[in-house]
Amino acid sequence: MVEAASGSTVPRRQLGRHLRELRNRARLTVRAASTALEWSDQKIWRIETGQTSMRSLDVEAMCRAYGADAELTKGLMGLAKETKNRGWWHAYGDVIPEGFDLFIGLEGAAASLRQYIKDLVPGLVQTEDYARALIREGTHGVDRDEIERRVHVRMARQELLTRVTSPPTLELVLGEAVLRQPVGGGEVMARQLHRLAETMDLPNVSLRVVPFSAGLHYGLVSGPFTLLRFPVNGDGQPMEPPTVYMEGFTGDLYLDKPQEIERYDGAFTSLWGAALDHQGTQNILRQAAKEFSR
């Protein structure tokens, strides 16, 4: 059973996947299932993609429509109760972009993250001032209190890298442009770059920079992405399928087909090979910080 500490996202996705498999085994289309249950197609889709919590009675109705046996029905009804568990981010539901709570939940449940970012420092390793400058720029017309709440959300997310119990490993590749974008001004950038250098000392964090001199590399084709992998259960199987997340201006994209995971895994390996080594990355970070401090 998924622990409540991982929040509601993982059990929602697990339940959605089980229900989708049941529907497929029953050879029912989404339209046929929605007709049988007297629900909308959209509701079925949201359940199967893990975007909504579930009532046990609704799960029971779906299992009955799909011909599931009593034991499986009982298990899925129990899993439905887990989808009600609330992660810490739900207290900020009104200030988190629509759909992004899914990523926060996955991030918190992940055993490892491989991330490529080309332009801006990612949220897990931002300083408070850097985060504030980005949020202020991206949220015109909101008041100061709301900006500060958004900053608080971002800072709270970072605790997963230093948590006592099973912190995830983070492999992070940054494009050199990240080091050159003067977000918040010179002093803010200098402190941010020093933070990145310090983050490299964490035992579960590896950070590399792809310099401009690397020329054409895979990241220019793939764009920014995060590849998440999850803990394994007692049978040695992942509790959740690996997932690629890509943030978009008007919507986010999640990929979990094996061939998609393999392709992005290969892209990350290529990026890691094109990047500076540990010492070279430390050197370019500290040199860029000096330039902003002048």
TrEMBL record:
Q: Which CDD domains match?
A: HTH_XRE
Gene3D superfamilies for this protein: lambda repressor-like DNA-binding domains
Q: Which residues form the HTH cro/C1-type domain?
A: 19-72
What is this protein's name?
Answer: Helix-turn-helix transcriptional regulator
- Which species is the source of this protein? Streptomyces stephensoniae
